[in-house]
Amino acid sequence: MSSDQTAGTPQPQDTPDPQGTPDPQDSPFRVEQTTRDEAPQYVLPLVARIERTEPPHRTDALETAARAVLVMLGDERSLGEGEWAQAMRDWQDARIRKVVRRARGAEWRRAEALPGITVTGKSAQVRVFPPVPLDGWPKDLARLQVSGTDLDDPEAVPPADATAPVLWMSPDVDMSAGKAMAQAGHGAQLAWWELSDEERAAWRDAGFPLSVRTPDAAHWRELVASGLPVVRDAGFTEIAPGSCTVVADHPALR
């Protein structure tokens, strides 16, 4: 499922810094038109492995997708003069789009043969690829389906570890698993941008621990008003524009 989000900070600026962090005065996550819409548009592809007989658990798929985005952001090939760095800069100069597609069997094996990074959770596998133009998808990814990522948690999800980052999903917005995976990735990316270099390195060295949880309505209202990074959807797919979908709660940001 595709996703293009807003984080609700006004006023434009041209480019991100060398680490790929957009200036906080120019969030690429916005509903209204900005100069970013005039730039060539790129998308970060993510492919979830969803086998018929053993589909991943929903929460684990969301957490694995979020971790995959962080792994891509922190990979040395995405930074400086790395082989993916220009594509990452081009992507972050425009709207921040992510598309989650599904693959199984031979489809997954073909996806794994393309340049990218596979991140494995408890039950989920997600492969993230360097950004591509909206109309320039590799053939083996373009043929994959976006729909069909309806996943469940077969058991009750335990409470979040409050000492680690938590991506809080809105209890008010109904999303497919693919859409929610993209949203979780956006939330993780907002947290990453807000951290210092030292805090990013510590998170990366720890293996990007995080959890994805859905709070009750009262807690959600507190989170949205807390000053933590909030993802607001641009309304291109599934949900109304401006909907708050994720609050990125990292201990360093509290």
Structure in words:
The structure is a single chain. With about 250 residues, the protein is an alpha+beta fold. It is about 30% helix and about 20% strand. It has helices at about 60-75, 85-95, 105-110, 140, 175-195, 195-205, 215-225, and strands at about 1-5, 40-50, 95-105, 115-120, 125-130, 130-135, 165-170, 210-215, 230-235, 245-250. Strands 1, 2, 3, 4, 5, 6, 7, 8, 9 and 10 form a ten-stranded mixed β-sheet that branches. It is globular, with a radius of gyration of 17 Å.
Primary descriptors:
single chain, 254 residues, alpha+beta, ten-stranded mixed sheet, 7 helices, 10 strands, 29% helix
Mean pLDDT: 86
Which structural class matches the secondary elements?
A: alpha+beta
H/E order of the elements?
Answer: EEHHEHEEEHEHHEHEE
**Model regions low in confidence, pLDDT < 50 over at least 5 residues:** 4-20
Residues in β-strands, percent: 15-25%
Number of helices: 7
Shape label: globular
Largest sheet: 10 strands, mixed
Work out the helicity level. 25-40%
Compute the number of strand runs. 10
CA(first)-CA(last) distance: 30 Å
- Cα-atom Rg, whole angstroms? 17 Å
